[in-house]
Structure formats: structure tokens, C-alpha cells
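Morning run. Coffee first, then this:
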Amino acid sequence: MRHPEDGLWIVVHKGGLEHHYRQHAPEQWRLPLARLQDANGNAIALHWAAGDTDTATGEVLTWSARQAREQAMADGGVSAASAGAFAAPFALPRLVGLSDSAGRQLRLTWTAPTAEAPATDPLRGARLATVELLAPGQSAPQVLARYAYDAQGQLVATHHGDLPYRQYAWRSGVLVGYRKASGHRYFAQYDAEGPQGRVLRSWCADAPIPSQDDDRFTYLPHERITRHTDGLGRVTAYHWDARFNIVATVTAEGTPEELREETPFDATGTAKGSTDPLGRRTTLRHDARGNLTQITNALGQSTALQYNAMDLVTTLRDAMGFEWKGAVAQIELQTA
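And here it is:
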């Protein structure tokens, strides 16, 4: 972490990637990401809508302004309802554009916040409306995507450029169907229609071949198994650990053609390798910092990797003894 100037904090990662966070207003308590930059100086700048805004008055509010307004309301005996959405949680800043080192600009346009938005909506009803790209040499931006929403702020239609892409249907706050530009309709059935619901069936109502796109899912949380049955009745079982990592995949489960591939993880959630259906094992080794240091295949052949203090690969040595040294390693040798 570096703090080179007032209002700017930089998080530097071991691979050279930098995250720049900038304070845009006094006492701003949430600092948006302002810039991403790699070790070679390639950068992407992020541009945000300025400050939180009271949807009732249009006034830009900092954290301290909100506190003062709420205290004044309490002292004056004014009910929270008269302040519109003021008592709602702090609104998230809205990303309005990105620009990169090559001069390209990605512009994002949002719908206006609404006073009717629920208090649980961090964007206060604002939704992404258009995405445009302006490249060097272009006189006008190119529309990449457009989005339309219903009164509840749920996505109902998308366009790729000016061409219709998909239409969406919702019920009880979950997506229950969509229609492609081709006219094909897709639907989803849940065990419970709500935010915690899980898909039991997903199918196409207009498939040219019956049951071609008809998938069913069974969940066995106590056994840590999820089963997927396709339109032909073929079953694939996914076994997962306490971290929800998939540790085994069984295809054609329950048939003579059953195949099992294992993908174990260690206690830290790091992949240890894999074992294919024929029992051939590939193992992975990592150092204490999580860097992959060795890959050993089923024949016992190994590829080894070495890293510098920045955790960048400096040497790769394969099973035949061939060695590759990266530019970082060559620079270190020349300056040693």
C-alpha cells in the first residue's frame, strides 16, 4: 500500500499490477477505483458520477452532509418519510466511463434514480442504459449495447448495437424466461421462486428436436452432490467440498460407461491436480505464496517453475531438461 499524495492510495500487487483509489470529495468514506495499471505502464482509467445525490432535492451529499441532515431531522422532529429517499442506504457511485492508454473511451449511460426505489437498492433505481465505444479517429461513438427495464428495475430487453438480442420475463424477482432474436423461447423452473431459489429445470419451448434443450437439476446438499440430467437422460454428477470447489465430476453416472474425474483441493482451497477416468494422475505443487512450482504428469514427468521476489516466473524447466528464462531472469543475470 502506498499513499503518494493527499486523496490517493495505491495497492501494488506482487505481479506489478496497481489499483489506484482516489478521494473525490472531502470526507468521502467509499473510495472508488480510479485506475488500473500493469508493470509495463499500460493503464485503464475509471470515471465515476460525482457524489451521492438526494433524489428529492438533487443535492450532492457527502457522508458528513448526510449525518448533519439526519441529525437535523431528528432534532426538528421531522419524520423520515418527508425526506424522500434520504433515509435510504448510501448510494453507490456510478461508473460512467473508462479510458485506456491507447486513447479508447468506453462510455456508460444510466437511467435516472427514482424516488420509488426500495431502500435495499444501492443504485436507487438507476440502471445501465447504453454502452458506447469511441476509438481514436472516430467522429461519433459506436453503440455496443442498449438495455431496457420495467418499473421494478428488472431487465426486460437487450440490444447488441441496434439489433434486438433478447427479451426477459420475471416473476417474484427471479428470471423465469427469455426470448432470443431468433424467436426461440427458454424457460426456467425453480424449487422456490425467490432470491434463494435454485433452478430445477431449464428448457427451450421451440427446440427443433423434442427434449434437445431440456436440462434438469437435483441438489443433494448433505451429500455435497449436484446432478445434471440432459434431454437424453444422461446424468452428470458434480461432487463439491465445503468451499464449493468441484472435487469430482462423474459423467454417465449409474451406467456401464460411467467415468469419474477427480480434481482435489488442499485445505487452503488450492488445486492439487487431477485424476482422469483411467486413474492417471497429474499433481500440482505450490510454494507458501501460492505460486505453482511443479507439474507432474501420470508418467512422472515434471515441469518446474522458479520465481523472483515479485513472484514473476524467471525460469521454467521441462521434463526433457530444456530451460526457458524469461526477460526478468535475463535482466537479473545482466545486472548481477
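The helical segments are 63-76, 327-335. Good start to the day.
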